[in-house]
Amino acid sequence: MGAWESASGVTGEPVAFSWAASAVLGARLRVHGWSPAAQELLGYPPEDVLGTPVTRLVGAPGHYHGEDLPPATLGPEGLARDLVLRHRDGRALHLAAAHRPLPASPGGQEATSLLLLAPAGELRDWETGQAVLRALFTQSPIGLTLYDTELRVTWANDTCAREMAGSPERYRGLHPDELVPGGEILGAERPDGLRALVRGVLETGEPVIDLHYRGSPPEDPAGERIWSYSYYRLLDGRGRPVGVCEESFDITERYRAERRLRLLVRAGERIGTTLDPRRTATELALTAVPQIADRVAVDLYQDVLEGRAPRGAPHRERPLVRVASFTAPSAAAGLPAALTRDARPDYPESSPQARALRGGSAVLDPDRDAGEGLSTLAVPLRAQGAGLGLVTFVRGGGWPPYRSDDRDLAEELVRRTAVAVDNARRYAGEHQAAVTLQRDLLPGQLPTLSAVEAAYRYLPADSRVGVGGDWFDVIPLSGCRVGFVVGDVVGHGLRAAATMGRLRATVRALAQLDLAPEELLARLDDLIVQWAEERAAPEEDGAPHEETTGGTCLYGIYDPVSQKCALARAGHLLPVLVTPGGRAALRELPSGPPLGTGGLPFESAEVDLPEGSLLALFTDGLVEARDLDLDEGLDRLTRVLAGPARPLDRLCGEVLSVLPSPMTTDDAALLLVRSRALAPGSVVSWEMPAEAAAVPELRRKAREQLAAWDLDEFSFTTELIVGEFLSNAVRHADGPIGLRLIRDRSLLCEVSDASLTSPHVRQASMDDEGGRGLFLVSQTAQRWGTRYTRTGKVLWAEQPLPPAV
Q1: pLDDT at position 762
Q2: pTM of the model
Q3: Which of 302, 300, 301, 296 is nearest to 283 (CA)?
Q4: What is the DSSP letter of 63?
Q5: Are strands 21-25 and 113-119 parallel, antiparallel or unpaired?
Q6: Could you tell me which residues come within 8 angstroms of residue 426 by beta carbon, excluding any fewer than 6 positions away?
Q7: Which residues pair with 97 in a beta bridge?
Q8: Which helix (H) or strand (E) holds 674?
Q9: Per-residue pLDDT at 164
Q10: pLDDT tens-digit profile of 279-332?
């Protein structure tokens, strides 16, 4: 029996019914032919049924009668679902039957028909298999293509016909790489191409699974499609290769979705790693090229780069600055020259860029620019409704033009970038405010003093970290003495800068009280603890204040008369002392707790500073970094400072040539102080017993000394000051009394005694006999005050001298 074609109408469908029992029927349904399968199914040998009507085999009452068989129209394929025939052994068999006419034989013989019989259960299985085959051939989304041993198309299902936009005759006989001309294999290095790959499957039998192939289908030559291809070898019944089967599935949307997801994941990892808007823009360009563009250019408004809040002015009134641009090397030759960094782009009003800025939304230009073969997508950078800039994506001729899905992806990338740029803008504004505050709080220039020569360098922290709280100061004190301080506040940012200014002002105020270094640090520590307790109370919204407190400090007082320096530290690094001979080393000092600890004592040490000695005070940012160990940094600093004396400004430059490290993330402060001695003969002193009779004698000696200094014009006021100070000492103190005159940039009068009681100015009434002396001193002296020593106190007054003197 031959193959039986189904009624599906698909040419070449390999459907056979050769396993069914068959009988050829003539006139009046007499059996003319009886197949072995029919004998096996019903048990009748051919001689028992040939020539007899087949209707005699119908053996169940109530079923078909007479000489009629079920018409061929019963069932979807002309099959009777329940034909009951009698087996030779008497059993009733429920069969499925197909009754079809056969073509008339030449010579006009009687018409014949074909009766096919099969058990109903087997027929249902067969029909299920046929349904699966029909679905695979006509409905499955998987394309099937058969190649012969010459790798030419011999057959393809309906899906392939739709994919190739035409009937099989259009592509039958083509090779695999000719179905989608110009396609490329993705994700693998296969320089030999698709045809060689399929030939390898035919020759080796090794299948290829899920090969991604990109190309343009015939119905859309400008479009991009991605297919997943799988290949396996076909063998005949004897195991000989007869061709290759190709399974193809269009994964364009899945591939694009995965590509978008991968790109967004990469963008999340790479964009916004710093608080630098230029770096963020570069990260966007490097992420998007060549994934979705041949070139990406990022322009930011000037005010955004300066950290100012975006203005609501029209975009034409806000200048743009090109901050980043990157072009794929393979596409550079086909694109026009790009603007250089920091250039000011000027886009025509009709350009996609100008339209995007004007409308505040992405502008997609699907048509390639005439003469350039480019496709442009302009996306504005916006955050919280404010414009920050513009991103331009450009594709050359090797890409399909930008479409809506490209726009969605680009907008998501730009949205993430805008958040990072806005954060960078806000930080830049805060950083600039902190730098300005810090600059205003630090000394603009150091005072010119006779006791010391000083120079400094200050390097703010990297903008990514924030302004720190390092500070330094040089403070003139009474008696030609000088105080100097270096400190470091915990933390960075505006609060650290504000706390630094607060501490510096406090140190200056405490220094004017002529406190010893250890006493000054103790009071400063107490104040910081009080500040912390005050700020610990919650704000109105219930949230506690966040304020930077604590830090380290090194404070010293140098006396040019004794050429000694008292130093105390609160958790700070040791200073470097350079002797007049050029020998440099860290100067050991008693350790002290950091500021803000509270309740722990501080100690000071006295250091000899002969004229020409150098003392270097600094913060840890100068000598410590991620790539610089503290000991190594201190060693570098000591080596640079050692040697013959050099000008302090030059020496500061030499230090900065080796320190701090580029990897530092902290402020760096350096203060160099070189000691001086007062000119010979500029200091005179006397002692007297605590007796009133000695006062006129000391006044006379003071007058004579002023005459020797050619300062006769100051005799009257000096005698008045000396007389008042000595009288108070005689009246209220015990023990010896000392008088010292110092001629420096001003004239200083100092009276020392053993009392700890400080006099004060009082308002005397008309009938009071005394009480006016200190009032007169305050009116005649530029400054006056009291400082305490280990043996008592010193009253001092200062009178300015003319510059010529």
Answers
A1: 58
A2: 0.59
A3: 296
A4: S
A5: antiparallel
A6: 307
A7: 80, 117
A8: strand 668-675
A9: 66
A10: 999 999 999 999 899 999 999 999 898 888 776 667 678 899 999 999 998 888
Closest CA to 587 of 598, 578, 576: 576
Q: Edge to edge, what strands does the sheet with 31-34 contain?
A: 31-34, 21-25, 113-119, 92-101, 79-86
Distance CA 714, CA 798 (A): 11
Handedness of CA 504, 465, 551, 605 (dihedral sign): negative
**How would you classify residue 357: left for phi > 0, otherwise alpha for psi between -120 and 50, otherwise beta?**
alpha
d(CA 20, CA 95): 11
Strand order, beta sheet including 746-753: 683-688, 737-743, 746-753, 793-800, 783-788
290: preceding bond cis by omega (within 30 degrees): yes
Scan for tokens 């570069």, then name that residue: 282
Residue 173 backbone dihedrals phi, psi, to 5 degrees: 95, -5
- DSSP 3-state helix, strand, coil percentages of the chain (rounded to 5)? 35, 30, 40
Query: Which amino acid belongs to residue 677?
Result: A
Whether the ω angle into residue 594 lies within 30 degrees of 0, i.e. cis, is: no
DSSP codes, 260-296:
HHHHHHHHHHHTTSSS-HHHHHHHHHHHHTTTT-SEE
In this predicted model, what pLDDT tens digit does every residue of 528-582 receive, in sequence order? 998 888 876 555 555 555 555 689 999 999 999 999 999 999 999 999 999 999 9
Q: What is the pLDDT of residue 371?
A: 47
Continuous segment of H or E residues that includes residue 569 = strand 564-570
Rounded CA gap, 554 and 572, in Å?
6
State how far the Cα of 674 lies from the Cα of 496, in Å rounded to an integer: 30
